[in-house]
Each structure stands twice: as C-alpha cells, then as structure tokens.
Amino acid sequence: MDEVEETETLKHQEETHKRKNPKVVFWNFIWRPVYWFRMLGDELHWSFVLSVVIVYGMNQGLSVGLSRVSTQYYMKDEQKVQPSEAQVFFGMIQLPWVIKPLWGLLTDILPIIGYRRRPYFIFAGFLGVISMLSLALHKKMHLVLALLSLMTGSAGVAIADVTIDACVAQNSISHPSLAGDMQSLCGLSSSIGALVGYSLSGFLVHFVGPKGVFGVLSVPAGLVILVGMFLREPHVHNFSYRRVNQKFLDACKAMWTTLKCREVWRPCLYMYLSLAVSLNVREGMFYWYTDAKGGPSFSKEVVGSIFSVGAVGSLLGVLLYQNVLKNHPFRDILFWTQLLYGLSGMLDLILVLRINLKLGISDYFFAVIDEAVTHMIGRVKWMPLLVLSSKLCPPGIEGTFFALLMSIDNVGMLSSSWAGGLLLHVLEVTRTQFDNLWLSILIRSMFRIIPLGLLFLVPRSDPNLSILPTEMLRTKKGDDIPESDNIEMAPLVNGT
C-alpha cells in the first residue's frame, strides 16, 4: 500500500510540475485550439466543422466586412446617390433577411433530390457568385440592376445562414454535450471573419475599387457551393411531396396561434418598436467622414480600420454579456443598455460639431472610440433580445418560429433604415451639404430613448426561467409541423 501511495504522490507531483512549467503551459495554450478542432472533427465529422468555418467565417463574417465598405463607396462614387437615398437602398438590400422563415421552411420540409441541406448550399452559393460577378464585370450598371444584384447576393448569404443553422441544430440534438462548443465555433468564426473583412476592406477598395472587391466576394460564395458538394448528410428516402402544402399550412397555423398569446406578442412588439425608432443615419455620417469640407476626410483605409474596431467592440459586448450580465432580468439590462445607447449617439454629435478638436482629441481617435463604444453597447442590448426570442418559441416549431422572430427584428431594422433616410432627406443632408447633420444625430439620439417607455411589454422574469404558459410548453404538434431539428440561430453578423 505504501508503494502505491508513493507512486500516486510522485505522479501528482509530476503533473503539478508540468502545470507550473512555463514552457508546458505555453505549448498547451498554443495547441489547445488545434486539439479542440480535432475533437470537433472526430465527433461531428470534418465536413461539418469546415462548413461552419466557411459559411460563418467566410461567407458571412468576411463577406459582410468587405461588402459594407465596398457597397458604401460603390453607391457614393459609382452610382452618385445622395446619403438619404443610400440609406433607403441599404435597407432594401436587407429585404431577403426579412423572409428568413421562408428559407427555414424550405430547407426543413422540402428536400431536393433526397437532400435537405446540400442543394440549398449550392443554390445559395450560385446566387452569390452570379450577383457579385455581374457587379464586378459590368462597366456601368443601372442603379435598379445594381440593387437587384446586391439583393440577390444578400439572399445567398441569408439562405446559407439558415441552412447552416439547421445543420448546427441537428448536431446539437444528436450531440447535446457539444452544443456549447458548436455555438462557440460559430461565434468565433464569424467574429474573426468580420474583423479580417473590415480590416482589409479599406485597402482593397483603395487598390482595386468597389467593383474589384465585389469580384473578390465571389470567392466566399463559391466556397459555399463546395460546402453543398462535400457536406456529409443522410439521404431522405420515400419523401412524399404531396404533403408539402399541408406542412406549410400547418406551420403557419401553429405560428399564428403562438403569436396571439399575450406572453409572445407583447415582447415581439417591443423588439420591433425598439429597433424601428432607433433611426439609422449611418450613411449621412459616412458621407461626412469622407466628403465634408472641414470634416475628417478619412481615406478608404482609415474607414475600414474604424469599422474593424467596431467589430472588436461588438465582440467585447458579447463577452461582457456572457460573463457578467446574462443572469440579470431582461428589463434591468434593457433599461440601462437602451439609456446608454441613446447617450452613445451623442458621440457622433461631438464629432460633427468638432468639439473633439477643441478638447485636443484627433478625429481618428475619437471616431475609433465612438465606433467601439457604440457597437459594444449595441451588442449588449441585442443579446438579451436574442435570449428572450429563444424563450418565446413553443415546442415543435422552435426553428421556424425563431426565424419568424428574427424576421420581425429585421423588419424593425429596415424601418429604422428607411426612417433615417427620410430624416436625412427632410433635413436636406446631401453629398455636399451637411449643415443639418448635427440635428439628425440629435433627433436620432432622442428617439433611442423612446423604448424606455415601452419596457412594460417585456417580462420581468428571470432569464433562466420559462416565459411561455405551461399549457403551451406541453403542446406538441407531431407530424403536422416541420421537424424540430431546424432550430434557427440569429445571424451573428449583420447582413450586407
């Protein structure tokens, strides 16, 4: 017995020594992500892991980072549109995300050639490639055709997003212990992709122009086609296409029944209104950044670097919510974040009125602080709404109903973008006239405070408890609704 105890003591001392050895700790830190990826590949198959990295990291994260700056310069320099018009056009580009439930229903209940996911990846990839190449190769495309191409590219990203969400959800059900790891993989891929995309966007727009960047964006879309070719997926046998119409109708009836529930429609109304009244005048600020006389006159590279800092701020917001705020009641978090969100809008006012220069703070440094703070607060404000949305989904239609909630949010952001464009138009903020830009920023910041009066629509409950009535939680729809394996997740990066 003494020899056994002595052996165990020696092993314990050796393990302790390894843990305290700086070299061992350093190499463990370096190789840990590799081991983590290898573990996910072994458990979930390498094709799934690579698909998440491509769709979230490349097609959504990197592409959104590149496309935002390139599209802004394309509208300003190639199409010669006014800031108010650009604001409205950017809202139109997001329209394919509004009908996200349709994409979810299609991939969930309508297999093609025996596969539920792979054909939709291929279709989404072709949409992206065709739309981006048409923009890149056309010398002088009409504005209407350009908008249609950009909307088509946005549809490709949305369809791929919905489809990979379904794949993640399926694996979360079959491997529940790895659900957190898969969420981390999605978030990590999209965050890194967005950071790289924003960091490179300004340089690429400067060297190859906006249309050249559109050509580059065809590459991530092409990789989505490859995802549809190599993704491992079981073949669906003896599928009855005659029941598709009935399944659509049953799903719509189930969603309508849920929406009529008081515990559901009230938070949904708050989510829409809180987003819709937060007027978006981003394009007015962008034109002022680059074209205003007496303004900062930021270069393309500087604009890209500022947006990349915003991506870092957004990531910090996620970490702050996850580690500090996730267990606080919804109303408490939304009250303080909405208040801070309104106050953060005043940073733009300080910049436009040039108060920062009087304080001895350079335009670039202040713009970086503004972008980081605004995105961090905006992300912290957004996270409890995502958690709230997930708790409003009844059993059996979780996937499709969550997609419906996300489409409601997208309608809110669309309303915000169009209302902001109207505000810029009324105040006569143009490509060369920015005298009233400060007023639009002040009005926007005041409107951001309005949702504080609507917080009574949000449940005061603990975020770890259920919100839906008990009888609704027990409801199961059986075979009359789409499969519950399509549990949609919110897009981790904003659309193009």
From TrEMBL:
The record's Pfam families line, in alphabetical order, gives: BT1
Decide whether keyword Lipoprotein is in the record: no
Annotated GO biological process? folate transmembrane transport
Gene Ontology terms for molecular function: folic acid transmembrane transporter activity
Q: Which InterPro entries match?
A: BT1 (IPR039309), FBT (IPR004324), MFS_trans_sf (IPR036259)
Q: Does this UniProt record's set of keywords contain Transmembrane helix? A: yes
Which terms are listed as keywords in the entry?
A: Membrane, Transmembrane, Transmembrane helix, Transport
Any one GO CC term of the record: membrane
Which membrane topology describes this protein?
Multi-pass membrane protein
Where is it mostly found?
Answer: membrane
Which positions, given as ranges, span the membrane?
Answer: 44-66, 120-137, 143-164, 185-207, 213-231, 269-290, 302-321, 333-355, 401-425, 437-458
Q: Which SUPFAM superfamilies match?
A: MFS general substrate transporter
Q: Where in the cell is it found?
A: Membrane
Q: Which family does it belong to?
A: Belongs to the major facilitator superfamily. Folate-biopterin transporter (TC 2.A.71) family.
Write down the NCBIfam families for this protein, in alphabetical order.
fbt
Q: What is this protein called?
A: Folate-biopterin transporter 3
Upper classification of the source organism reads:
Eukaryota, Viridiplantae, Streptophyta, Embryophyta, Tracheophyta
